[in-house]
Amino acid sequence: MAALSWLVEAGADEATADVPVDRFNARTATLNAATATPNPTPRRNPPLAQIKPANLAPLATDGFGSALEISAKCHSLEELKAAMESFDGSQLKKSATNTVFADGNPNSHVMFIGEAPGHDEDKAGLPFVGRAGKLLDKMLAAIGLDRTRAYIINVMPWRPPDNRNPDPGEVAMCIPFLRRHIELAQPRIMIMLGAVSARHVLGLNDGIMKLRGRWLEYRIGTEMIPVLPTLHPAYLLRQPAHKKLAWRDLQALADKLDALGLGSKV
């Protein structure tokens, strides 16, 4: 009775079942459970080694699944490049002139990631060769870098027609190749050129003005590496007054390279 009074004072003023349960008697609860209908034996998942690849294979019409499967099988940048050039699951690739894979030195420690190829890049098959690319070269030179001491890629290796914004499905098709590219190159530092690269690499939807100049992190295997978003060279061509912000970011990159002992090795 005292327990009932305590429950009422605590606010338990209504029953939740037709039959009262004596929860103070563990033995009674155990016996009741023992006479109840037994639960079926839990299923045990087989060891991963016993799961056949066929069970994990994507549907033939699943372009993203195919990209995921194909990229995972690549164990070198050469294999990845060949796989992307032969990939037929992207409509963007079918309309592009070339697969824009990368430029620069894959053995360097700093990777720059842009958005997508433009007309000049699609024609040449290399990233950042137009006006924005020339400005990027000047930005690199300002801190003692060039394309022999940096590695440059894009989120998307295929140019959207007329430089239109790609739809989410088109971008998603490129992400497995992008992530595998990063894993195989194993950079020590990554620079995100613009909000699009920050969004698709880091999963951040903030504007570039909020992201730029902040050191973030990205996981490669078991390591976390520093990542710095900054302004895209194409944006700086439209907004030259903001070059001073990009210069601050470049100085931060130079300082980070020195701090990691990479200033003379990239």
General description of the model:
There is one protein chain. With 266 residues, the chain is α/β, with parallel strands linked by helices. Helices cover 44% and strands 11% of the residues. It has helices spanning 2-9, 26-35, 53-56, 63-72, 77-86, 91-95, 119-124, 131-141, 168-185, 195-202, 208-211, 233-238, 243-259, and strands at residues 103-104, 110-114, 151-154, 189-193, 216-220, 223-230. Helix 4 packs parallel to helix 9. The longest helix is centred in the middle third of the chain and has 18 residues, at 168-185. Mean pLDDT is 84; it is low at 26-31 and 33-61.
Keywords:
single chain; 266 residues; alpha/beta; Uracil-DNA Glycosylase, subunit E; six-stranded mixed sheet; 13 helices; 6 strands; 44% helix; globular
